[in-house]
């Protein structure tokens, strides 16, 4: 689970799946960049990221699992 106080984060290229609850409750995260290699965003991956205002979603993303962006 990612818990840094950075406001911007870029998922490294080559990551295929963002895991369940990977960024859950990251209070400071405002921007996320997802690479073209990512095809799936896991359950509750970004839930409770209340400061999140910008998400770069690639064309190759095929699956957004349940609750991935709940309680924003």
Give a description of the structure.
With 72 residues, this protein is mostly beta strands. The protein has a single domain (1-72), classed as Alpha-Beta Horseshoe (Leucine-rich repeat, LRR (right-handed beta-alpha superhelix)). It has no helices and six strands. The strands form two sheets. Strands 1-3-5 form a three-stranded parallel sheet, with no helix packed on it. It has a three-stranded parallel sheet with strand order 2-4-6, with no helix packed on it. The radius of gyration is 11 Å and the shape is globular. The mean pLDDT is 93.
Query: What would the average pLDDT be, to the nearest integer?
Result: 93
Order of helical and strand elements = EEEEEE
How is the main sheet built?
Answer: 3 strands, parallel
Q: Give me the count of strands.
A: 6
Radius of gyration: 11 Å
Proportion in helices: under 10%
Strand order, largest beta sheet: 1-3-5
Strand fraction equals: 15-25%
Based on the model shown, name its key terms.
0% helix; 72 residues; mainly beta; Leucine-rich repeat, LRR (right-handed beta-alpha superhelix); three-stranded parallel beta sheet; 6 strands
């Amino acid at each position: 689970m990612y818990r840094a106080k950075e406001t911007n984060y870029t998922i490294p290229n080559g990551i295929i799946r963002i895991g369940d609850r990977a960024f859950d409750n990251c209070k400071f995260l405002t921007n996320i960049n997802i690479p073209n290699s990512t095809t799936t965003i896991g359950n509750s991956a970004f839930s409770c990221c209340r400061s999140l205002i910008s998400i770069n979603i690639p064309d190759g993303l095929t699956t957004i699992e349940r609750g991935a962006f709940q309680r924003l």
